[in-house]
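Bug #77: duplicate submission created two jobs. Keeping one. Sequence:
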Amino acid sequence: MNPLFQLSTRSYDKEIPIIKSALEQLEKECNAKNGYVIEEPFQKFGWTFFNIQISEEMVGIIEKSGMMEGALGYRIGEQMTNFIGHYLETKGSSVRIKKIDY
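Kept job's structure:
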């Protein structure tokens, strides 16, 4: 199963192009095809939530390449969550990220 993360934002229309661009760039850095899937958004309490799935191929490349060096967390799932969150933040996104399944 591919790792699944939930992102949340109050400004989905502004954030989604940033997220797509950042994930496309990460996909290129990893030299992976079909490295991610963005699922349909849903709204609750004024927030928009949407899930992203990262392909096992891309996760493997990220883990082995040293990209996650310095990512905080005791477990690999926490480190990956922090890495993805920080990566999106460096590309201009301000979404919140939560690990669903890793």
